[in-house]
Write a structure and sequence with these properties.
The complex is a heterodimer of chains A (about 375) and B (about 120). With about 375 residues, chain A is α+β, with helices and mostly antiparallel strands. Chain A is built from eight helices and 19 strands. Chain A folds into three domains: about 140 residues, Gyrase A, domain 2; about 90 residues, Aminomethyltransferase beta-barrel domains (Alpha-Beta Plaits, 2-Layer Sandwich), CATH 3.30.70.1400; about 70 residues, Elongation Factor Tu (Ef-tu), domain 3 (Beta Barrel), CATH 2.40.30.110. With about 120 residues, chain B is of the alpha+beta class. The chains are: A alpha+beta (about 375), B alpha+beta (about 120).
């Protein structure tokens, strides 16, 4: 229960709002962030059944522009950015030459020659240096700029998100498809709106000038109040993303795990001629990787958590990367790296839970899929 | 929340209700707030002997795992099975959610009263 001195942590433009709302604050990636307001279960259920508003301003933005911007993005990320239309978004990996993750990112195509990568808070500095060096090496007409401080970012997530946000904007949200974005005004503030999120629900992320962040935050909560829209913290964000089987950088993948091992082959542009690590990933795809990230469900009453060892046939064989008791499914679920031979659904294995071996079984992901 | 005067408290945020030679044990309101939504509770078998400060079980919230420490020396005479089935009651009524009952054999010194515990959690 010791906490870092709040003074040394970065604060988002909505920090005072979190304090005023009585949020419990924690350190996350160098930021002082709200982990919960009314409680993780309450906030999780609000997002699944109504909507919740998250401050995710700690996320970073790195923009790459210039005549050779597409070439640069194609070189540093795994997915095929040439398939993006202007205003379209894709999930992708920033890869090392070994095919592992520098980070996982969303790539926004702002213009033919202008891309924006949305990156994880704890990786902003690392990513920017990595990208700037790779772009410089490539030598073309492209430059990378860390624009993280230009944006506050809010995520309104849940089945009511569209109606609530629509009441505040002239942008036709019904016409905005999943993983597309546009610009317009929300509560008379000039913003970028994308139909994206990290919860497994329909929802939107809104990029706002920091000076107007409180105005937009207040307007969304006010517009959603009668429908039961509430602020939600990083605790619920984590349980929601886990139910939806969305990976968390630093838990489920990092610089030691490849994109194929993380079972994210769908974010690799297999037809691309080149990108960092493509040879490793293509080989792993063809020959199989030694291990793979799987979903699991506990077969006994217990919770397998991040870092717990995994045993297959009595031998230590991997590690749990994420795990909790999820509020909506009301089950203990998680993700773990297992030897590829033990990854078919139904395969039983054991997790060492504080010295006790407890049974779990591989299940298909996602654990939760919303009704459309 | 005010801390009931008929309970004693530990620096590890357990409460103990002493009643003659027996006692009931739970965790405080402060502890449940720190944990957040409780989802899992693991308690010992009846008959187990515990030393003051010894781990007698585990409590888990969505986010965290925490150990439970015996506030006194004693032998476990009863375990609250309903609470194991509905651990979320710890959040709703922490001072009414007893976890284990003990036959006290010693170690009652050094417990905090409600006033001292309130100070500790300020």
């Amino acid at each position: 229960m010791t906490q870092a001195a709040p003074g040394s942590l970065k604060k988002t433009p909505l920090h005072a709002r979190h304090r005023a709302l009585g949020a419990r604050m924690v350190e996350f990636g160098g930021w002082d962030m709200p982990v919960e307001y009314s409680g993780i279960v309450d906030e999780h259920m609000a997002v699944r059944t109504r909507a919740g508003l998250f401050d995710v301003s700690h996320m970073g933005e790195i923009e790459i522009a210039g005549a050779d911007a597409l070439k640069a993005v194609q070189h540093i990320t795994s997915n095929d950015a040439s398939r993006l239309a202007i205003n379209q978004i894709q999930y992708s990996a920033l890869t090392t030459p070994e095919g592992t993750f520098v980070d996982d990112v969303l790539t926004y195509r702002v213009a033919d020659d202008h891309f924006m990568l949305v990156v994880n808070a704890s990786n902003i500095v690392k990513d920017f240096h990595w990208i700037a060096e790779r772009v410089k090496e490539a030598g073309g007409d492209a430059a990378a700029v860390n624009t993280s401080s230009r944006y506050a970012l809010m995520a309104l997530q849940g089945p009511l998100a569209k109606d609530v946000l629509q009441s505040l904007t002239g942008v036709d949200l019904s016409a905005m498809k999943y993983y597309w974005f546009g610009t317009g005004e929300v509560a008379s503030v000039r913003v970028t709106i994308s139909r994206t999120g990290y919860t497994g629900e329909d929802g939107f992320e809104v990029f706002v000038p920091p000076s107007s962040a409180e105005r937009v935050w207040d307007a969304i909560l006010q517009a959603g109040r009668s429908a039961g829209v509430i602020p939600a913290g990083l605790g619920a964000r984590d349980t929601l993303r886990l139910e939806a089987a969305m990976r968390l950088y630093g838990n489920d993948m990092d610089e030691t795990t490849t994109v194929v091992e993380a079972d994210l082959g769908w974010i690799v542009g297999w037809k691309k001629e080149e990108f960092l690590g493509h040879d490793v990933l293509k080989r792993q795809k063809a020959e199989g990787a030694p291990r793979k990230l799987v979903g699991f469900e506990m077969l006994e009453r217990a919770i397998g958590r991040h870092g717990y060892d995994v045993y297959v046939n009595g031998e230590k064989a991997g590690v749990v990367t994420s795990g909790t008791q999820t509020p909506f499914l009301k089950k203990a679920i998680g993700m773990a790296y297992l030897p590829s031979s033990a990854t078919s659904p139904g395969t039983e294995f054991e997790i060492d839970i504080r010295g006790r071996r407890v049974k779990a079984a591989v299940v298909p992901m996602p654990f939760y899929k919303r009704q459309k | 929340m005010t801390y009931p005067a008929d309970l004693k408290y530990t620096k590890d945020h357990e409460w103990v209700k002493l009643d003659g030679g027996s006692a009931r044990v739970g965790i405080t309101d402060y502890a449940q707030k720190q944990l957040g939504d409780v989802v899992y509770l693991e308690l010992p078998q009846v008959g187990r002997s515990l030393k003051k400060g010894e781990v007698f079980g585990t409590i888990e919230s969505v986010k965290a795992v925490s150990e439970l420490y015996s506030p006194v020396d004693g032998e476990v005479t009863d375990v609250h099975g309903d609470l194991v089935q509905h651990p979320e009651h710890v959040n709703k009524d922490p001072h009414g959610s007893w976890m284990i009952a003990l036959k006290v054999t010693g170690g009652q010194d050094g417990l905090l009263d409600a006033g001292a515990y309130t100070e500790l959690t300020k």
